[in-house]
Design brief:
heterodimer; A: mainly beta; Maltoporin, Chain A; 2 domains; 22-stranded antiparallel barrel; five-stranded mixed β-sheet; 4 helices; 56% strand; elongated; B: mainly alpha; 9 helices
């Protein structure tokens, strides 16, 4: 009874307590003492609270009494909670809110790195930009050639970056090395990349100073990251002037698993019959291939991905022999088989750790026939990779990883010369192991320091090398930052030299890069100066050795603007390159044939919303490049004419029922001007022939149909 | 005596509950009424804060969370770029809370669909396919959960309206959807004074826009 009365009294007291009101007011500012408007400041679990006005001031009445929690929150700021006591007498509470960490406000390491990604915000390109760049013809490398640092080399495939050769750029898919990223081609005709840009959600094109995660590329790294699960189930059909393709991707319910395939067949014969080619093809290039993929989410943070690719290609070409006066033609006939497989697993372990594991097997076999020789060349690569990352605090991260690669290279030649037949075979095995550790340490949100080291050993060379890498980046303004990178890089000698009795050692480069960039939603401005020193380059002057040396220095500028002209997106890149090297059979340090002093690209894109036509124009220019003239006593002193090319493309997009159709047209070198990449001289130096593209212009027409199983009406919502 | 006190106690408590309920309804009514009259970002932020406070105090109610999400998704229309995603993230937080309190709710799925289509505008070229599909799937669910709710049809109209004809959209396709929505608005009765009842005036506005050449 007494307890009940006590309870009743207490209840009454508390009810009375409700009427004791406390006025709470104050001002909320940020770290720069600026008022923060719109903050929700409240007594937790109650109705009482207010919102700060334009001057950061607030005031409200709290109806509770006793100990309560006062909380303040606002988008873009860390929330604040504070215990206070309400007694009925006014409370003045002023506070400072800290801006919360936001990807865009935090400095990132940008020296030497150009990234295309949908997920990260402050990137130079989006994956779609690669597909829509005129002159790229849907080739990743073709699009990257319009970026600063890359050379306009037309006679050989690959990315020639800052004075480096095509083989000095390493291509990786999900961290795993791709040995043969390009279709096999005839001499002096560049081939396309094997992989479709639609496979990848992210592309990192690094022109130097890159992370210790990457090895065996002394000039550049092209790191491609494959897509995760697709958005929906869909089928595709591609019909074009060069071939046909079909594909299907199945996404299972709950969106946890997907599998897909594609098959394609390319034959350039009909096209070559229509458009005359300079070389005489005995067999027009023909490729049949396909790919399979499987992706499964093993947990909310875990994913397994498999990608398998195969391709069979062949072609034959006859070219007029420069040494012959009676019209003798050289023959080059090639059959290529290529398989690439890649299996990766990514998972978060606990709160702090992320595990990445990968395995890959690939093989490439070329069978080449000339009038005199039959050559079979094979290279296989089996590799495994593991990387464990650990987050420290909110931003810093440490990565530790190990790689193992087993490679097998072989060739067999059956040939004859004027006197006799000969037969040669050779096989080379290599066990390559590497380990690395690297830390990104955020000293503040504006200052990050990356330090790493990579240890590598190849049993073929039998030497362990350590390459230190470091970079530092500092955010100077809301959109601007400066960064510096330094690194040492090693690479095994090119495949051509590993069969030599005395295998030369690692080639080495040391990079120094200073980068300034400003990136906002609509504009990008980047400028980079660099100095690169080459040591231990492969030399064949006397015997095969590593006595080659060289340097490269220059300036890269990139400007992109998506805003000034309505519906227009354009970028301009400029590359200044000063490089010399003594390597292979060079008698002294000279500028090599793959380096132009000035290179510029202008890429222009416009989308006509009403017509649903997207158009693009790319203009590229490069000053003449050195070529070897035996009549000139000075080695590689001659220069070709300047290089100009204009590529155009247009795509018409349309939804027809459940089918989404794209009709694409593109023309390479539309002005049809003369292009000379180099010259080849006869032995006696009396005659020469120009090396150029196989035809003046390149035409492409394609129809791509995509059938969505889901609703796809709102493919492009135009409400921005 | 015991009994009397007990009765008194029960009476007091129930009055308390009633008072609380009345307080909730009147607070909600006041804010919902203001919501009808504003598209201004600062006012929407104020209202979002008010709804967030009510949601914090009334943990069993889905409507305060629903309206907080509604405020944030409407704030995306007066901003651009990354801020759209930031508002959408915030709206997602509230609507998911509402969804956990009241599952399979047509009104909640309507907002979810609206958030997905708001995200498209950050980058229509690269996001159109993903979020367009997501928005349509959520909208279909909203229709399924309440066949009398006009709002998913209104959203369908806007999706058609803002999609170019060659991608399967256009005014011609938008108009029937808006007309259907308008017909449903004529008969739609909100469950209470604070239940969702928006979209009719916008539907009428869009029908006029569809008729413009």
């Amino acid at each position: 009874m007494a307890r009940l009365i006590a309870l009743l009294i207490l209840t009454n007291l508390s009810i009375q307590g409700l009427f004791a009101q406390t006025k709470i007011s104050g001002k909320i500012t940020d770290q720069k003492k600026q008022p923060v408007p719109g903050v929700n400041i409240l007594i937790k679990d109650s109705y009482d609270g207010g919102t700060t006005d334009a001057n950061g001031n607030y005031s409200f009445i709290a109806n509770d009494t006793g100990e309560v929690v006062l909380a303040a929150s606002m988008i873009g700021f860390d929330p604040i909670e504070k215990k206070i006591r309400l007694t009925g007498s006014d409370i003045n509470f002023n506070t400072v809110m800290k801006e919360s960490l936001n990807e865009l406000k935090v400095v990132t390491i940008s020296a030497g790195t150009i990234e295309a990604s949908d997920e990260k915000k402050a990137t130079v390109l989006k994956p779609l930009d690669i597909v829509t760049t005129a002159s790229a013809q849907g080739d990743i490398v073709g699009a990257l050639k319009t970026l600063p640092g890359a050379q306009q080399v037309g006679e050989s495939e690959g990315l020639f970056v800052r004075g480096g050769t095509g083989t000095e750029t390493k291509t990786l898919i999900d961290g795993m090395v791709v040995n043969n990223p390009f279709y096999t081609a005839a001499p002096d005709i560049a081939s396309r990349g094997r992989f479709s840009p639609f496979l990848f959600k992210g592309t990192i094109f690094s022109t130097g100073g890159y992370s210790a995660q990457y090895g065996q590329g002394i000039s550049s790294v092209l790191a491609l990251e494959t897509q995760d699960l697709p958005d929906r189930t869909s089928s595709t059909i591609a019909l074009s002037s060069v071939g046909i393709g079909v594909g299907h991707n199945q996404l299972w319910t709950e969106k946890k698993m997907s599998a897909g395939f594609d098959l394609n067949y390319t034959n350039l014969l009909p096209y070559f019959q229509l458009i005359k080619q300079t070389p005489e093809y005995t067999r027009a290039p023909q490729f049949s291939g396909g790919s399979v993929n499987f992706r499964k989410k093993t947990s909310p943070s875990g994913i397994i991905k498999f990608y398998g690719y195969f391709n069979l290609g062949d072609m034959g070409i006859k070219t007029l022999s420069i040494d012959s006066t009676n019209g003798f033609k050289n023959l080059f006939d090639i059959n290529n088989n290529n398989i690439y497989t890649n299996l990766t697993y990514k998972e978060r372990l606990g709160e702090k750790y992320i595990l990445n594991i990968g395995a890959s097997y690939s093989t490439n076999v070329d069978k080449i026939k000339t009038w005199t020789d039959t050559i079979r060349s094979q290279s296989d690569l089996t590799q495994g990779r593991i990387v464990v990352s650990r987050g420290i605090g909110r931003l810093s991260i440490i990565r530790v990883g190990a790689e193992y690669q087993y490679s097998y290279d072989a060739f067999k030649i059956d040939g004859r010369n004027s006197f006799s037949r000969y037969h040669r075979t050779s096989e080379v095995f290599d066990n390559y192991t590497a380990g690395f550790t690297e830390a990104d340490i955020y000293l503040t949100t504006k200052l990050v320091w990356r330090a790493g080291v990579r240890a590598e050993n190849s049993t073929l060379i039998n030497k362990l090398v350590f390459s230190p890498r470091t970079s530092i980046a500092y955010k100077v303004g809301e959109f601007s930052q400066v960064s510096f990178a330094y690194g040492q890089f090693y690479q095994k000698p090119d495949r051509d030299y590993i069969f030599y009795p005395q295998v030369p050692g690692y080639n080495k480069a040391t990079h120094y890069i200073l980068n300034v960039q400003r990136v906002d939603d609509y504009h990008t401005l980047r400028a980079e100066i660099y100095y690169k020193k080459y040591d231990n380059l492969t030399s064949t002057l006397n015997d095969t050795s590593n006595s080659g040396t060289g340097y490269a220095q220059g300036l890269d500028i990139f400007w992109r603007d998506k805003k000034t002209f309505k519906g227009v997106d354009y970028w301009i890149s400029y590359t200044y390159l000063d490089t010399k090297r003594q390597w292979l059979n060079y008698p002294k340090e000279v500028t090599p044939p793959f380096a132009a002093t000035h290179t510029t690209s202008i890429v222009f894109k416009k989308f006509f919303t009403k017509l649903n036509i997207s158009t693009g124009v790319t203009y590229s220019y490069a000053t003449g490049r050195p070529y070897y003239n035996p009549n000139n006593p000075e080695f590689l002193k001659d220069r070709t004419i300047d290089f100009h090319t204009v590529g155009i493309n247009a795509a018409y997009l349309r939804q027809i029922g459940r089918c989404f159709a794209v009709l694409a047209v593109s023309v390479g070198n539309v002005i049809g001007n003369e292009q000379v990449y180099s010259y080849r001289y006869s032995y006696d130096g009396m005659r020469r022939s120009a090396v150029g593209p196989p035809a003046k212009r390149f035409f492409f027409v394609g129809l791509f149909l995509s059938f969505g199983q889901d609703r796809s009406k709102e493919v492009i919502d135009n409400n921005n | 005596m015991k009994k009397t006190i007990l009765i008194a106690l029960i009476a007091l408590t129930s009055i308390g509950v009633k008072a609380q309920n009345k307080k909730y309804i009147s607070a909600m009514e006041k804010n919902v009424a203001e919501l009808d009259t504003t598209r201004d970002a600062t006012k929407l932020q104020n209202l979002a804060n008010n709804f967030e406070r009510i949601a914090g105090a009334e943990k069993a109610e889905w409507l305060p969370n629903y309206y907080a999400a509604y405020c944030y998704v409407n704030m995306t229309y007066s901003t651009k770029g990354d801020m759209i995603d930031t508002y959408c993230d915030k709206a997602d937080k509230f609507i998911n809370k509402a969804d956990s309190i009241s599952p399979n709710n047509s009104e909640i799925y309507t907002i979810k669909s609206q958030i997905a289509s708001a995200r498209i505008s950050v980058n229509p070229m690269s996001r159109g396919q993903k979020y367009g599909t997501e928005s349509a799937v959520l909208r279909d669910k909203a229709k399924e959960f309440d066949k009398t709710n006009p709002r998913p049809y209104y959203l369908e109209g806007t999706a058609y309206f803002y999609t170019p004809p060659m991608f399967g959209g256009g005014k011609d396709k938008a108009k029937p959807a808006f007309e259907k929505a308008l017909k449903m608005y004529e008969t739609f009765k909100p469950a209470s004074s604070i239940s969702p009842n928006w979209g009719k005036r916008s539907t009428e506005y869009f029908i006029k826009e569809c008729d413009k050449k």
